[in-house]
Amino acid sequence: MAKLTHSDLITLLLAISTMLILSRILAEFGKRWKLPVVMGELLVGILLGPTILGTFAPEISTLLFPLKTNANVSIALDGIFSLSVIMLLFVAGMEVQLTTVLRQGRAAISTGLGSMILPFATGFGLAWYFPQWFDCEPGSQNHFLFALFMGTAMSISALPVIARILMDMNLFRTSIGMIIIASAMFNDLVGWLIFSFILSVGGMGGDKGDVGYTILYILAFGAFMLFIGRRIIDRVLPWIQTRLSWPGGVLSMCLGLCLLCAAFTESIHIHAILGSFIAGIAIGDSVHLREQAREIIHQFVTNFFAPLFFVSIGLKVNFIEHFDLFIVSVVLIVAFVGKVLGAGIGARLGGLSRRNAIAVGFGLNARGAMEIILGTLAFEAGLITQPVFVALVVMALITSIASGPLMRRFVDEVAVPNARA
Amino acid sequence: MDYQKLKRRPSYPFETIGVALAFSPRLEGVLGEAWKLALAFDSQLLLMHIGERTRNKESKLDELVERLGIDEQKVRIIWSEGDPVTTLLDLCKLNIVDLLVLGAMRKENMLRFYLGSVARSVSRKAKCSVLLLTEPKAEGTVFKKLVVNSVESPKTIHTINTAIYFAEHICSKDIVVATEVHQPGLAMTMAGDSTAGEASKIKREFTDEEANRMHAIVTRCRKQGDIEITEKIIKGKPGFAIRQFAETKKADLLVINSPDVKYGLIDRIFTHDMEYILEDLPCNVLIVHSRVS
After folding, report:
1. What is the CATH number of domain B142-256?
2. Which residues in chain B are closer than 8 Å to A306, comparing Cβ atoms?
3. Which residue of B has its CA nearest to A173?
């Protein structure tokens, strides 16, 4: 069995502790200006990676993060980063509560559909008709997948950022807040299903799947977990929570099931993220999952795995070298127009006032961490270039920061008090 | 049919009580319960059977009416054929039934639940209040402890008032009004950047907000004599939490709002709200149809 040497282990532990401590410090600073935590984490990666430290003091950067010079540490870190993204998708899934979408009824369904369809169409159209802008060869094998990806990237929303904004604006428990939350859940569900399909068909990891079989596998796995798996979990969870150690028992079983599902989907050539995401939905939707267990899982993933993953992004890409103002501008414009219009029209059709519909559009426009995860996976799969990836990260940050203030300008006064879902 | 008469008709008093007769082993229990209620509320009793009218059934019903001491002056019997659910619902509308009494299994087997039994299907669609009796007794159930689900809806005040009216007529003194606190996305929102103090403050605020809202509704209700109303906050998913609460409290009757939207198969697969209660009835259930627009 290959082992890390004494010095490899020290390097690995140093790298992890540096990422965790610095990202927490920057996140706490960012909190004062109400900036999303993910921004601090990304900034640490940018500071420590090729963008800043790698340019001005490359020897220190390499010493801390020998991704190119030490294969052992590089593989170990890669394993941790992969585990991080799996866990991130697991907790994202845990918050997709399909019953919340159903409870909100027509308004949530039409907003959810509107905030998917138009952004998807604009993103797809942009990549399909102007692939040369993004360094994608027209008519190439990747062209269609790239267009599909851009459509998905434009249609996804970031539930954690949106929920935080709504809470800060005292809109979290209003009808408009619940419509936004339910629509974001819907966006996440459909978006990650499509993205899993893209990664599988695109052959991430060198194993291309047949289109028909891939769709069949995704649907079969999703249907099994959501219809049968969910029922089994519902039956087993009370037993686990009362008979096994608390909260150790439920945490081990939930995380174990997440990794098991991730391993299964990876083995049938669908990306591991789909397994963990669907496992998250099945577990998170259970009425028997105690709130305390849910909070512990969230705390563990958000404060350990998330910083490692988001810092790692800055370690892999030079953000200054690959910053292309044209691509960033195009991506930003399409992202804003597609999402605000699409969600706004959907909300209007769902019966909201014009101003509230626009507010819903701006609310759902926040892409946050989800967009960055999506972009990272696509970048690692070779689906997008570094400039496109940088543009997506910038778009994710700008849409997240702008979402709250823009919502505040449009939301009706009457939506704030006493308009509960 | 003049359905206009139904519009804005208050959920109480129960002038007409309808009973669905299935000629099952629980027939005597259901009929006995309905008669006791009709006496308590001074209502007309409408017995409805959807199915073939046979001499055997007629004599069985006559025998039961006699045995239970039912006053024939206060009873009408309707025999009809067709789809049990739609026919029953039409008859209720046509005869302006205020309360429909049905016998219901505590738990249906999975296939029957998904396909929809008569009692559950009627509960989802009825345009009048529905009383589901899990263990109907010929001598009548004693409804001592009532639990009312207070959800944020204009219907809730009518539901609580109906529960008070019910309690008043069956001489119950104990009503617990319970509201559920559930906020999807809260754990995730607070995981990254909330201190312990902030997190507990947010949770406390949510709970206080719900408690104040419930209290505001209860203070607007019609108070009656010595009926004691207790307010209670419970945590958990709507529908499921109240079901568990009613079970733990050993309630005799759980009173809930009628659904705001039409429930279908998808609502049974991804169970929510009233479907949690219909999935596994914790006790007798009164679904109040308040007919507010």
Report:
1. 3.40.50.620
2. 192
3. B183
